[in-house]
Amino acid sequence: KAISSLTIHESCSCFSSMASAMSMKASPVHPPKITTVKALVESTGSSSIPSFYNFTPYLRDEPIAGDAEDSVPIIDISLLVSGTPEQQSQIIHQLSKACSDWGCFMVINHDVTESLTKAMIASFQEFFDLPEEEKKEYQGNHVMDPIRCGTGFNPSMDKANYWRDFLKCFAHPEFHTPNKPAGFSEIALEFSKRNREVVTVLLKAISKSLGLEESYINKAANFELGLQLLAANYYPACPEPEKAIGIPAHYDHGLLTTLVNNGVSGLQVKHKEKWFNVNIPANVLFVQVADHLEILSNGKYKSISHRALVNNKATRMSIALAHGPALDTVMRPAPELVGNESDQPAYVEMTYREFLELQQTGRLSSKFRSDTEQSKAV
Fold first, then answer.
1. Which family does it belong to (predicted)?
2. Per-residue pLDDT tens for 192-237?
3. What angle do CA 138, 131, 12 make, to 5 degrees?
4. Domain chopping of the chain, boundaries
5. What contacts 186, CB < 8 A, 6 or more positions away?
6. DSSP secondary structure code for residue 24 in this structure
7. pLDDT (tens digit per residue) in 33-84
8. 291/299 Cα distance (integer angstroms)
9. N or C: which terminus of the chain carries fewer CB neighbours within 10 A?
10. How far are the Cα atoms of 86, 279, 284, 319 from residue 112, in angstroms, in the given order?
11. Is 276 helix (H, G, I), strand (E, B) or coil?
């Protein structure tokens, strides 16, 4: 059966959604000079937010899960590394269930130390505390800029109406970071390396959970040269959190995203048509299935919709690492997972670079599935 067209969702975090388009229509034109949210908060001290930060689309209308409902699965990665064959098999089964049922999970007993995570959070805080003029040195507009500092989601498209500032850096295969504050690069390099080691172990186990050879995903994605994106999202306390959004519902590009935060809650994931609050304990990695693992698994594992809310009490910071294929690698469903008529390839082939560039220009919307009734991937 021919695959003929494509519709794709805008990613995060790292990374827009249908809600984004609705927000654009509802928001007044942004003032000529776009400032950071941090600078805005510090300069005004207002009890209200400017109208161009109003995010109206059904933000509080969708059901929120109660605390007693399902909880995000927990994966003990140490059992994958040094457990008995029976323990390894059990964790691989748990991973399969987590990826198919939730699209996310918590990882415990990993080698990203709590002290390293705290140092990374502190270094990003120092960066965001730099004078605005110094941070402007790192402004970028293109998704392929190796260092990008900015505000909103995609200011050229979204009118910068999200209550978020960010810094994004390519960490692999080439490492790029700002040269300030002092010590930032060294901490970021170690933090990125440790997270990548965790993901390497997880991808081997996920390959096996799909019935594939252990190194399948690594080879198919050319992961040795895969793009790793280090991103910090900074959400200042908001005087009217019921009107604003940190990042609206979206999905992440890449294979897996690892995430930590500064202990302030705000992350929500969508599960069984409800939004679940995710509180990430200290020394735990929150891991999300991303678009290209969904593609490779031909939809068996789903990337998860998630969003970031804001509050009026404390600044929230999250640090995400998107672990993707090599930029020029064509990603497609694994042939072993494409069998009978009902398991035909459900996704259109394209390189990771093409995916990112189309996403950046807003030419990808909704999901990235094939649609046999259309003929153009726009």
1. Belongs to the iron/ascorbate-dependent oxidoreductase family.
2. 999 999 999 999 999 999 999 999 999 999 999 999 999 999 999 9
3. 45
4. 18-346
5. none
6. H
7. 657 999 989 888 778 998 888 886 655 567 676 765 689 999 999 999 999 9
8. 9
9. N
10. 25, 18, 9, 13
11. strand
